[in-house]
Automatic annotation (TrEMBL), chain A:
Enzyme class: ligase
GO biological process: phenylalanyl-tRNA aminoacylation
Required cofactor names: Mg(2+)
Keyword DNA-binding in annotation: no
Keywords from the UniProt entry: Aminoacyl-tRNA synthetase, ATP-binding, Cytoplasm, Ligase, Magnesium, Metal-binding, Nucleotide-binding, Protein biosynthesis
Identification of the protein by name: phenylalanine--tRNA ligase
Lineage: Eukaryota, Viridiplantae, Streptophyta, Embryophyta, Tracheophyta
EC number: 6.1.1.20
NCBIfam families: pheS (TIGR00468)
From TrEMBL, chain B:
Cell compartment(s), UniProt: Cytoplasm
Keywords: Aminoacyl-tRNA synthetase, ATP-binding, Cytoplasm, Ligase, Magnesium, Metal-binding, Nucleotide-binding, Protein biosynthesis
CC terms in the record's Gene Ontology section: phenylalanine-tRNA ligase complex
Signal peptide: none
SUBUNIT field: Tetramer of two alpha and two beta subunits.
Cofactors that this protein relies on: Mg(2+)
Gene3D superfamilies documented for this protein: 3.30.56.10, Bira Bifunctional Protein, Domain 2 (3.30.930.10), Phenylalanyl-trna Synthetase, Chain B, domain 3 (3.50.40.10)
Organism of derivation: Ceratopteris richardii (Triangle waterfern)
Catalytic reaction equation(s): tRNA(Phe) + L-phenylalanine + ATP = L-phenylalanyl-tRNA(Phe) + AMP + diphosphate + H(+)
PROSITE patterns to which the protein is assigned, alphabetical: B5
EC number, UniProt record: 6.1.1.20
NCBIfam families: pheT_arch (TIGR00471)
The protein's name in its UniProt record: phenylalanine--tRNA ligase
Length: 253, 587
């Protein structure tokens, strides 16, 4: 997916993904809002009306959120908080033409206006995957996740019910690490909600299964790094980069 | 984040396991004394009699799990220990129903109010704490720090209905607020609470308004001055038996959810368990409505939808059984003979998170156990490929690395100082994307060049053996009125050489090598079929030791020896040369 756009509008980052406008994540303390350029210059008007309706009164078998959706909120520019904003653009583009199954992925940078410490950064990378087809199931999602994480060297997975505004069901993915003797959360996943897909014009029988994880966390676990700044940023440990062996993740017996 | 003492749970169950299955996170197991020890950095022996506290994180859309009562109830129902409660509104003849009249001016500041009564409650310290705690949590999240909804709870026996919800000038609102003994006007309190750590955060909601919301009883006693504080007169104590709850709001949907959450959670302590007494709200235009609205919403969900979305084959009775465990009372649907079977779900007032049949489908999955579902793989066949720009970037990274340079990845956000002042590029400021709410200067502006990040990295690795050869291939952001959002990313490559000598020829050599692997011919100056270099005059470089790279008629990059003043700014002791190229023009 073409993720080379860090500047995004609240519309694509939040509203199209059925994240209500009064949601805590849209607080200024979690998101980097922009002074320049402050608002987005254009939005797809027809689609915007559908998004407004689904938030305000529902539709497509949903009751919606029942609040007054404001255009000015959607127009606010920000540094994207997740690459799911791009996924939303891609799904919208897919829905405009004749449908055929698609699989998408991306690995790119996201921004969170949070307090920074040795495991939390203001900017980090997300890995995202989506599969769009007719008749996909939750069983399919778990099967794909097993295949995916195996290639990262994680063979034992467990799934926990979770919540995202744009997926239902939502599952947190846990992997067992022998070195810690415990289950650690390694990612998030789910089936995209009809309130996201239907206003785009996606056919009713099309499902989208999606998953995402951060790049930094598994890297720290798998390489045994306890301070992410040794790998990323200006305080990088150059010796570590130069002496690190070639990557054999997922290929070990 | 929540902390509980869970005492009503069967001791033989692995609590952690149940939390996982249900979808809540058991974050930590500790004790109150351990928390205090941790805060005070004391290392003491653990005492055996310390009550265990479970720190639990719950999903953001489940307001019915925000207090011990709701959470414990949900888990007991999940484990089939008790049935789903049926919430009732008590049958009160309309004439004797408690009433609240809304006055017109409230529409100027806080238009809505909903109310309910809990009769015959029995409170002890733990229940009282839980009651206050839930209000705090709701205020914090769903109510968006009281801007959308504010909750007031009162001892009904200290008051006399009918009530009125009015909006008056602050100087005309006079009462004894909670924790005080003398009377103040709202005007006084707006000033006084500026020094109150907790309350000052809410003053902005009323600041500048000619009228403030206020609730009176029939004897003109002030119940509350929303959203700031309640009156002391009607304060709830452990002896309170009848509770009057009022929620004032700017968002009616949320006010109803908040009221329903309060009453469904605590009506278990009423004399008639799970029964709530209604209040009639008469709005300014004379229309009346009765709250709380505890009616269940009926949803018909197709069985085949549930089965096909989850990927399991389930029968009607199996699904209804699972849904009952998830607090979604369900029965066999009334469907026409011959068509797909449906499930009739009665969505209770505790489940405001259920918006669409997919929410019902998820709960069936949770009840069944996600990890019990058979894992399959999607059948669709698709062709995979990399985005051309990304493929090109990866190839180029490999080439630069093979030339002996080490890759680094630096921050996109930085300060104005580092990005412009320290590299003598003040005129570039107008091209940049600027952050509106940075916590510190580190997050002020989005980079328009990779150069500052590279120099900063070198400055922090002074002890690294020479020569230092670094590169970065990544995005910068430039303002662009042609893009829908008003800015675009641009893929740049920067490479740096640092040694006892400046290494200008090394960097120049790298430029030539890059153009070679990209397949662009070196040509003479002025020839637009290939690339050539031309002297430049950028302040960041040493005069006379810098050049622009012109490729097929456009300038695509620059390289040169870094100016000593710039080196000094970044605390770099040795000379260095650097290049920066916009690789999108090469792609």
């Amino acid at each position: 997916m073409p993720t080379n756009n860090f500047v995004e509008s609240s519309f694509w980052n939040f509203d199209t993904l059925f994240q209500p406008q009064q949601h805590p994540a849209r607080d200024s303390h979690d998101t980097f809002f922009l002074k320049v350029p402050e608002v987005t210059q254009s939005l797809p008007e027809n689609y915007l009306e559908h998004v407004k309706t689904i938030h305000e009164v529902g539709g497509h078998e949903s009751i919606g959120y029942g609040y007054d959706w404001k255009r000015e909120e959607a127009e606010k520019n920000l540094l994207r908080t997740h690459t799911t904003a791009v996924s939303s653009r891609m799904l919208y583009a897919l829905a405009q033409g004749k449908f055929s199954p698609k699989k998408y992925f991306s690995i790119d940078r996201v921004f969170r206006n949070e307090a920074v410490d040795r495991t939390h950064l203001a900017e980090f990378h997300q890995i995202e995957g989506l599969i769009c087809d007719r008749g996909l199931t939750l069983g399919d999602l778990m099967g794909v996740l097993n295949e995916f994480f195996q290639r990262l060297g994680m063979k034992k997975l467990r799934f926990k019910p979770a919540y995202n505004p744009y997926t239902e069901p939502s599952m947190e993915i846990f992997s067992y690490f022998d070195m810690f003797n415990k289950w650690v959360e390694v990612g998030n996943s789910g089936m995209i909600r009809p309130e996201v897909l239907r206003p785009m014009g996606m056919p009713k029988d099309v499902s989208v299964i999606a998953w995402g994880l951060s790049l930094e966390r598994p890297t720290m676990i798998l390489y045994g790094i306890d301070n992410i700044r040794d790998l990323f940023g200006h305080k990088v440990d150059l010796k570590m980069i130069e002496s690190n062996p070639i990557c054999r993740l997922g290929r070990q017996v | 984040m929540l902390m509980y003492t869970v005492c009503k749970f069967p001791a033989d169950e692995e609590f952690d396991e149940v939390c996982f299955e249900f979808g809540i996170e058991l974050d930590d197991v500790t004790t109150e004394k351990a928390i205090i020890r941790k805060e005070k950095h004391i290392n003491e022996e653990v005492e055996d009699d310390e009550e265990i506290i479970y720190k639990i994180e719950i999903p953001a859309n489940r307001y019915d799990l925000l207090c011990l009562e709701g959470l414990a109830r949900a888990l007991r129902i999940f484990k089939c220990i008790e049935p789903v409660p049926e919430f009732q509104v008590s049958k009160v003849p309309p004439a004797s129903m408690i009433k609240i009249q809304v006055k017109p001016k409230t529409s100027m500041i806080r238009p809505f109010v909903v109310c309910a009564v809990l009769r015959g409650v029995a409170l002890d310290q733990a229940r009282y704490n839980s009651f206050i705690d839930l209000q705090d949590k709701l205020h914090q999240n769903l109510c968006r720090r009281r801007t959308l909804v504010a909750i007031g709870t009162h001892d009904l026996d200290t008051l006399e209905g009918p009530f009125t919800y009015e909006a008056l000038p602050p100087s005309e609102i006079k009462f004894v607020p909670l924790k005080e003994t003398k009377e103040f006007t709202a005007e006084d309190l707006m000033e006084k609470y500026k020094a109150d750590l907790k309350l000052k955060k809410f003053l902005h909601i009323l600041e500048g308004s000619p009228v403030h919301p206020v609730i009176f009883d029939s004897k003109r006693r002030v119940l509350s001055w929303p959203p700031i504080i309640n009156g002391a007169h009607s304060a709830i104590t452990l002896d309170t038996r009848n509770i009057f709850i009022e929620c004032t709001a700017t968002d009616l949907t949320k006010a109803k959810i908040v009221l329903n959450t309060m009453v469904t959670m605590f009506s278990e302590y009423c004399t008639n368990k799970f029964e709530v007494e209604p209040v009639e709200v008469i709005s300014a235009n004379g229309l009346s409505a009765v709250y709380p609205d505890l009616t269940c919403r009926k949803m018909e969900v197709s069985l085949s939808y549930i089965s096909s979305a989850l990927g399991v084959t389930l029968g009607v009775s199996e699904v209804t059984g699972l849904l009952n465990r998830m607090q979604l009372p369900a029965t066999k649907g009334d469907n026409i003979e011959g068509s797909d079977p449906t499930i009739s779900v009665q969505v209770p007032p505790t489940r405001s998170d259920v918006l669409h049949p997919c929410d019902v489908m998820e709960d069936v999955g949770i009840g069944y156990g996600f990890n019990n579902i058979k894992q399959t793989t999607p059948k669709c066949v698709t062709q995979g490929r990399l985005l051309p720009l990304n493929e090109f970037s990866d190839s180029l990274r490999a080439e630069v690395a093979m030339a002996g340079f080490t890759e680094v990845v630096t921050w996109i956000l930085g300060s104005f100082e580092e990005n412009f002042d320290m590299v003598k590029r003040n005129s570039e400021k107008q091209k940049a994307v600027v952050v509106g709410n940075p916590r510190t200067s580190e997050f002020e502006v989005v980079r328009t060049s990779l150069l500052p990040g590279m120099l900063k990295t070198l400055g922090h690795n002074k002890d690294h053996p020479r020569p230092v050869k670094l590169f970065e291939l990544s995005d910068v952001v430039i303002l662009d009125p042609k893009k829908d959002v008003g800015a675009r990313n641009e893929r740049h490559l920067t490479a740096l050489y640092c040694n006892a000598n400046s290494g200008f020829e090394v960097i120049h050599g790298l430029v030539d090598r890059i153009m070679q692997v990209v397949g662009v011919k070196a040509v003479s100056v002025g020839d637009n079929t290939g690339y050539f270099i031309q002297p430049s005059e950028e302040p960041v470089f040493f005069p006379g030791r810098q050049a622009n790279i012109i490729c097929k008629g456009s300038q695509i990059g620059t390289f040169g020896i870094v100016h000593p003043e710039v080196l000094q700014n970044f605390l770099i002791p040795d000379p260095c040369s650097i290049l920066e190229i916009n690789i999108e023009s090469l792609h």
